[in-house]
Amino acid sequence: MSDSELDAAFFVRWMVAAAAAVEREADRLTELDSAIGDADHGNNMQRGFAAVVKALEADAPTAPGAVLTSAGRQLISTVGGASGPLYGTLLRRSGKTLGDAAQVTRQELRAGLRAGVDAVMQLGGAAPGDKTMLDALVPAVAALETSFEAAAAAAEEGALATVPMRARKGRASYLGERSIGHQDPGATSSALLFATLAEVAA
Amino acid sequence: MTDGGQGAGPVGIVLVSHSGPVAASVAEMAAGLAGGGATAPVAAAGGTPDGGLGTSTELIGAAARKVDRGAGVAILADLGSAVLTVKAMVAEGDELPKGARLVDAPFVEGAVAAVVTASAGADLDAVAAAAGEAYGYRKE
Fold first, then answer.
1. What share of chain B is helix, strand, coil (3-state, %, to 5)?
2. Hey, of A43, A45, A74, A77, which one would you mutate to test binding to chain B, going by the most B CBs within 10 A of its CB?
3. What spatial distance separates the first Cα and last Cα of chain A, rounded to whole Å?
4. What positions does the domain PTS EIIA type-4 occupy (chain B) (predicted)?
5. Residues B80, A80: C-beta atoms closer than 8 Å
6. What is the count of residue pairs from A and B with beta carbons less than 8 Å apart?
7. Ordered structural domains, chain B, with CATH
């Protein structure tokens, strides 16, 4: 697929691949979340992305922006934990930024995701280094300038880099020092999102 | 209909907790403490539709519509993900009645202040301010 021809079908494939990856990794996400969270991240994400796929199957939008906006709305409505509004805001704001163009370039997608990440920062009040999904998202979006593969690698690296961090946001922050030594579940699922993006772009 | 419309009925209050029973009990307590006479409409949106712990946009949206009398709706939330969910719903713009907003206040104390103030006929800004003032009440 050429970088200049990302159409709605490409974005639907991305969401379907993300749902499959979340389902495959649900146990691992829950395991990570049981160490420093409330042990529901795997189930929550699975439920959310299943709803995303179902909505896209029922009514697939014809513009990339509309695919992401629809996915974001489903996540906010169905996930139930903090991940719902955060991931929902990420995708919805990205979708709104892409507008109703029938096709977008990788650089346009990067700009859209950048706006989405900014909205997540604003909503959750977190910054990189707080041991959150942002630690995967921020480097991933920056690396998307180079390629989809670079973005996936940066997200994975960002997720691994949360292990020695101390959580400063969300339920994990109550654990203080005891949150150190565990990989952040949100950063891990964000890495999955970029891994599947690279997968469908390959 | 304008936000906090002149002559519109009282401001509605929605209490969003991770727990259904917590939201319902706080709603009951706040209405009880608001005392005699007519009280402002209060609705609880606690837990998930199947009775589990969590936050549900469906329950929050339904509760807000239920208490909307045209003068706005003050929404109070207990913990992080409930707060984020309400903020995301406000940003979404089409799931909540016009004039619904998240109020920055402690959950229990803020709920009592909000219901008492709304029952006295105050507008949304005054209800939000009264609920927020509960942060200033020190306990030692």
1. 45, 15, 40
2. A77
3. 7
4. 10-140
5. no
6. 42
7. 12-43+52-134 (3.40.50.510)
